[in-house]
Amino acid sequence: MDTLANALNNLKVAETKGRASARIKPASRLIKEVLQVLADSGYIAGFEFQNDAQGGFITVQLKGKLNAIGPVKPRFSVTQATWEKFEQRFLPSKDTGILIVSTPAGVMTHVQAKSKNTGGRLLAYAY
CA 80, 86, 88, 92 torsion: positive or negative? Predict the structure, then answer.
């Protein structure tokens, strides 16, 4: 069971149905970090963690800006030389959308990782 894939699917379904918010359960640190990257990039309005003594859940406020979002499976390893290949594979066009990557410096977008000259593991894409 992949909790990140389930969380991203919940966001996609809620966005498709035109809902103002989505509820993600169970919550994890990785999901919170991915949601923070989405919020910083302007794809979601924000999110709030609520503890219910069963792992907690996250309520996400949607903006209506997600056209597509999904996990990258398997989580490919990316080096500085292979960014272009994965951008062409997962994003619709140049400078449209983001790849979310886990690096030694934390979870960030592919643009931030390229500027820091680092690689990592691909987690998700959004546009």
Answer: negative
Residue 1's pLDDT is what?
83
Q: What is the DSSP letter of 105?
A: T
pLDDT < 50 positions in the chain: none
- 63's torsion region: left (phi>0), alpha (psi -120 to 50) or beta? alpha
Q: Residue 4: which of 120, 105, 107, 110 has the closest Cα?
A: 107
Residues in the chain: 127
CB atoms within 10 A of CB 121: 14
For residues 49 and 75, membership in a common domain is answered with no
* Count of structural domains, the chain: 2
Query: What is the C-alpha separation between 111 and 76, in angstroms, rounded?
Result: 17
Residues 6 or more apart in contact with residue 48 via CB below 8 angstroms? 58, 59
Residue 80's CATH number: 3.30.1490.10
Q: What pLDDT does residue 52 have?
A: 87
